[in-house]
Amino acid sequence: MTKVLTYVLTNAMTKVLTKVVTKVLTKVLTNAMNKLVTNVLTKVLTNAMTRVLTNAMTRVVPKVLTNVLTKDMTKVLTNVLTKVLTKLSSRQR
Questions:
Q1: 70 vs 72: CA distance, rounded Å
Q2: What is the pLDDT of residue 74?
Q3: How far apart are CA 28 and CA 82, in angstroms?
Q4: With b meaning 16 or more CB within 10 Å and e meaning fewer, what string describes 60-83?
């Protein structure tokens, strides 16, 4: 009788402990993986965004500014020259 009880209790405890340990390990590993994946993704995305923004600031912005300023300066100079030439030509008449 003692052997039977020992066997039954051992099996029962083994099953319970297996379930408990499995659940605990699953939670611990899931949390660890979530944190790891989050950290890795954060670093990867941060690096990618840093590269994108750096490229934008060093390549795109100067081109846009150059285009805008060139157009604006062309308009300003055209207006100024037109006014100057108009005044000069009206004086000569």
A1: 5
A2: 87
A3: 77
A4: eeeeeeeeeeeeeeeeeeeeeeee
